Amino acid sequence: MTTVEKISASEKLVSDFEAVKKTLPENSFVQNIRQKAIEAFAKLGIPARKNEEYKYSNVQKLFQEDFTQSAIYNPQFTIDKYLIPNLDAHIIVLVNDFYSEELSSLENLDKTVVVSSLKKAFEKYPELVEKHFSKHADISSDAFIALNTAYAADGIFIKVPDNTVVEKPIHIINVISAKENTLFSPRNLFVIGKNAQLQIVETFASIDLTVNVISNSVTEIVVGENARVQYYRVQNENENSQHINTVSASQEKNSHFDTNTVTLSGGWVRNNLNIALNGENCETHLNGLFLANATNYVDNHTLVDHRMPHCESNQTYKGILDGKATGVFNGKIFVQRDAQKTNAYQSSKNILLSDDATINAKPQLEIYADDVKCSHGSSTGKIDEDALFYLQARGLGIESAKKLLLHAFVNDVMQTIRIEALREHLENLIHKKLD
Amino acid sequence: MAEQKDILEEHIFSEYKYGFTSDIDTETAPPGLNEDIVRFISAKKNEPEWMLEYRLKAFRHWKTMEEPRHWPHLKYPEINFQNIIYYAAPKQKATLNSLDEVDPELLATFEKLGISLEEQKRLTGVQSNIAIDAVIDSVSVKTTFKEVLAEKGIIFCSFSEAVQEHPELVKKYMGSVVPYTDNFYSALNSAVFSDGSFCYIPKGVRCPMELSTYFRINTSGTGQFERTLIIADEHAYVSYLEGCTAPMRDENQLHAAVVEIVSHKNAEVKYSTVQNWYPGDKNGKGGVYNFVTKRGICLEENSKISWTQVETGSAITWKYPSVILKGDNSVGEFYSVAVTNNFQQADTGTKMTHIGKNTRSTIISKGISAGQSNNSYRGLVRINKGAKNARNFSQCDSLLMGSKCGAHTFPYIEIKDKSAVVEHEATTSKIGEDQIFYCNQRGIDTEKAIGLIVNGYCKEVFNQLPMEFAVEAQKLLAVSLEGSVG
After folding, report:
1. How many helices (H) and strands (E) does chain A have?
2. H-assigned helices in B222-352
3. Chains A and B: how many Cβ contacts under 8 Å?
4. B57 touching A (Cβ < 8 Å)
5. A407 phi and psi, to 5 degrees?
6. Containing domain of residue A47, as a range?
7. What is the rounded distance in angstroms from the CA atom of residue A146 to the CA atom of residue B66?
8. What is the distance of C-alpha A132 from the center of its chain?
9. Is the dihedral of CA A68, A69, A71, A72 positive or negative?
């Protein structure tokens, strides 16, 4: 009997690249980066649990099945269903990683603001794209950044020119659908100029998903000098979907960047949020909320890299876990030698509702400058019995008292969402979920 | 500023007090590690067959293991395990009946260290409160107060002696808390461990004095691999102290110890360490690599284990004294002050594993980094499924002195039971300028003010140390940090 040694998933992804390469847009600049990226991926491989960054995430299990890389399948659907009620926004729709102009509506958007597919942006704005593409998400730092950089066919490119305020939020709807196991690799690049302002809401939806899909996305965001950017991500998805999302933001001096990552559903979600503070006086706020049940897996990894003095960062992540769900919070505050006068704060709070649920928290501080104020806190517990008793004493039933307390628990993260329609929408979703 | 600089320089040039070498006749094994060396060590110690088997099993397992390199926040050159001498012992008669037979040079060594074995002898019969087991290089040289302790049924002797005289206890407990498969260094230790202390407190006995082991590396090129086993039977209590020093040498010496503690029903073990191995010179040359596995298990209900450590020495410290809280209502504590200066690196913390119901753990860790050192806290709190009403509180503070050092916190929190309440807090900052200013205003000079503030900062941990040790620790801290504020 002969045994055929099965090649590992990483090796397969590397060897598949030769074929996939031909279907990808031709451009010597990108081709070069792609080649480097696949080499970096070949070196890194799909991380094992021995890798400290993937200690709690069994990503190798995700890749046990075979996946195709290019999705040719185009689903039929109407976009109305995926809109957020009462949210007056510019709509961008991506179907299976590709920008769909028909479904998007950008009529009232300031003409100086550029929205295009990344593929087209390479042709139309080569200088700008080449300046930033793959400059903020480092291919050598993470296998999935490398994999995305090699495989990404398309995504969205947004450019807000200097001194421009985009009044209405931009809502990006990612729709995916597949007939066979598929690996998606969307790639986005947002460049926000000096003194500009922008709000982005990103949501994810899947249609009739009966097969396994992995979406490995990378978004690079450049926040220019004195710019203000808010970036909200809502993950409320099908149980079959598996997400590895990387957002790498880079902030110039005096800029503000706020992010909110709200995960309400999804089979397997890993969010990597990397923020580099490249200028003085930057302020960054990272907020996150996750509600998980069944066998959901939600993993939030954050890295705030303080490179310059006088910056401030603030993180609040909250999680409620029920059923057999597993939640992970891994936050790192990195303060480099020169980043004196840094103020950094990090907090992770979690509630477990079931004995089968698990939470793993790893709030980390890595500090090389002395004149700093850095602190973190993490707490995990059950619903406060005294508070519960207090409410019951005032005539509330135990179930509604619990619900009230859970709403109160998530409230401070909800309050950081400054788009009212979005907040209301999320509150409704959370309400339903907690029922 | 100029004044501060002077203070800083003064400290940088301050010498390691225990850096002398002693000229003692020693017997050493050739450098290198293979099965023959393991057999040689075992034969030297006249060990029974089962002990040798255990060592060989550990050695074979060790060969399959990898050095833990990827996760600790430490940087050091490759260690060549074949260049180390695994056995070094002062030449002496097989058995010592009294202190008079001990090599006078050896006694002088301990005299220099401030541990007078002679004085200990003279004090016998008089109320004294510390019994000492002195370990030099690979061998325990003398255990004091054995007779007094024996009256109470307490066994306190060297590990080698325990293997000969109390094999049933050693067999039962050795490796039950830290199996040889546990990690790279515990496997290495299990294969080549030389000596250490053994302590057994019988049922219902409260040990009347502090038990103490004093470790000293002397011979050049040697590693020290000691093994300590402490067992507190039901309702027993013991407080155990450990101190260590080494001579100044240009080479890096390896110290890979294993400490196991077993605490039975209602028993309590308090383990305090003042670790002051040679930290290397101001350029980071030399110093001891301290790779230690320490773990205790609260085996039955209402038991308690408390670790207190003051870590000021070693070029590299890799050490996580842990508690497995298996019995219901058991308590685990960890109090730590870790000081790093010059090029020292420390990656230290604890692991609290909650298995039993109503188990509680407290972690207080104070890190102080100065010079170009890196000081990391790495700790795990794990609440297993079924560990109902487990409670943990952790606090990890770091103090930075000077702008070239680093302070890091890596807590791991893993919770699988909904009734658990776990809190973790950490802060990193430098000494408040307003605090120093306030002291200056009241006529306290900057150096004293810093001493005052740092002592206050570490007070929660020092309070846990036995009296004699607390005084020593405060002095040690003062020496380690003398004015090293930038």
Report:
1. 9, 20
2. none
3. 121
4. no
5. -60, -40
6. 22-434
7. 28
8. 19
9. negative
**Closest residue of A to B387, CA-based?**
A355
Q: Which amino acid is at B222?
A: T
Q: Do the Cβ atoms of B420 and A365 come within 8 Å?
A: no
Residue A6 lies in a domain: no
Residues of chain B with C-beta less than 8 angstroms from the C-beta of A369: 400, 403
Count of the separate structural domains present in chain A: 1
Whether residue B411 and residue A364 make contact (CB cut-off 8 A), yes or no, is yes
Q: Is residue A4 part of a domain?
A: no
- How many residues are present in chain B? 486
Q: What angle do CA B217, B220, B223 make, to 5 degrees?
A: 55
* Helices and strands (DSSP H and E) totals, chain B: 12, 24
What is the C-alpha to C-alpha distance for residues B454 and B312, in angstroms, rounded to an integer? 14
Both structure tokens of B185:
């260094």
What amino acid occupies position A368?
Y
DSSP A68: B
Cross-chain residue pair A378–B416, CB shorter than 8 Å = no
In a domain, A11, yes or no: no
Taking alpha carbons only, the member of B249, B199, B261 closest to residue B224 is B249
Token pair in block for residue A78: 């109407």
DSSP A375-430: EEEEEEE---HHHHHHHHHTT--HHHHHHHHHHHHHHHHHTT---HHHHHHHHHHH
Q: What is the pLDDT along chain B (486 residues), one digit of tens a residue?
A: 444 444 444 444 455 666 666 666 677 778 888 888 899 889 888 889 999 999 999 999 999 998 888 888 888 888 888 888 888 776 654 444 455 555 566 666 666 655 555 544 444 333 345 566 666 665 665 666 777 788 889 998 888 889 999 999 999 999 999 999 999 999 999 999 888 889 999 999 998 888 888 777 766 677 788 899 999 999 999 998 887 666 666 677 888 999 999 999 999 999 988 888 888 877 878 888 899 999 999 999 999 999 999 888 888 999 999 999 999 999 999 999 998 888 899 999 999 999 999 999 999 999 999 888 999 999 999 999 999 999 999 999 998 888 888 999 999 999 999 999 999 999 888 888 888 899 999 999 888 888 888 888 888 888 888 776 777 777 777 766 655 554
For an interface test with A, the pick among B184, B361, B423, B428 (most A C-beta atoms closer than 10 Å) comes out as B428
Write the single-letter amino acid at B205: V
- List the structure tokens of B53: 């088997």
- DSSP state letters, B212-252: EEEEE--STTB-B--EEEEEE-TT-EEEEEEEEE----SSE
Is A202 a member of any domain?
A: yes
Report which residue type is found at A154: D
Identify each DSSP E strand in A153-296 by its residue range.
156-160, 170-176, 182-184, 187-192, 197-206, 213-223, 228-236, 241-251, 256-265, 268-277, 283-292
Mutate to test the interface with A, among B389, B405, B412, B433 (most CBs of A within 10 A): B412
A153: which 2 tokens? 């066919």
Phi, psi dihedrals of residue A4, rounded to the nearest 5° = -95, 120
A355: nearest CB among B410, B418, B422: B418
Q: Which residues pair with A197 in a beta bridge?
A: A165, A228
Instruction: Tell me the C-alpha distance between A63 and A68, whole Å.
Output: 11
| Residue B125 CA, distance from chain mean position | 30
Is-contact A384 A351, C-beta < 8 A?
no
Please identify among residues 361-380 of chain A the ones whose CB lies closer than 8 Å to any CB of chain B.
361-380
Chain A contact set for B423 (CB, 8 A): 377-379
Per-residue b or e along A48-61, where b marks 16 or more CB atoms closer than 10 Å to that residue's CB: eeebebbbbbebbe
* pTM of this structure: 0.85
- Tell me the shortest Cα–Cα distance from A379 to chain B, in angstroms: 4
Phi and psi torsions of B45, nearest 5°: -90, 5
B146 touches chain A (CB under 8 A): no
Using alpha carbons only, give the angle B232, B234, B240 rounded to the nearest 5 degrees: 25
